[in-house]
Amino acid sequence: NKISNPSFNQNTGVVQANVVLQPGVNSFRIDMSNPCGNNSISTSVNYNNCTAPNIQLISPSASGSTVNNGNYIVNASVPNLSSGNLQVTLNGVNVTNFTNVNGQLSIPLNLANGNNTITIRATNSCGMDTETTSINYQNCSAPVITINQPAMNAISTVALSSLKAKVENVPNKQ
Prior knowledge:
A hairpin with a 4-residue loop joins strand 1 and strand 2. Helices cover 0% and strands 54% of the residues. 9% of the residues are buried. By secondary structure, it is mostly beta strands. Strands 6-13-12-8-9 form a 5-stranded mixed sheet, with no helix packed on it.
């Protein structure tokens, strides 16, 4: 492509033009002439139109979330990583059993009791991004209550009745 209106400073000998590069190889040639002859020079710039990865955590939605199930799936979106490197760690240990389908990550984890730190690092030829989040795993179960007496929806003709229930996963009466 021919550059229209380049600037030329006769005092400094500098030729200058602002150009918009297209993806791929962009070639430039400068032709100059004076009464004593002609000269030209060529150069090229290879414009790699790429974007650095940008990790977006989907779940957990907030760092520091508390869960009561040790089997947890972290979901994240990592656009701009068609070619590149993806690394996931849980508490500093590499995790390799994740899936990446069109930039959508699914990372099944076995959490340790207490605080767990998850780091996702994506790198391509244009840069890198790192996201770190934490999940607090509390190994506990919700209360389970089973009524033993009276039977469900029972009808009584006596004003004084006995209530018996079995309660699980509760250390003290509440």
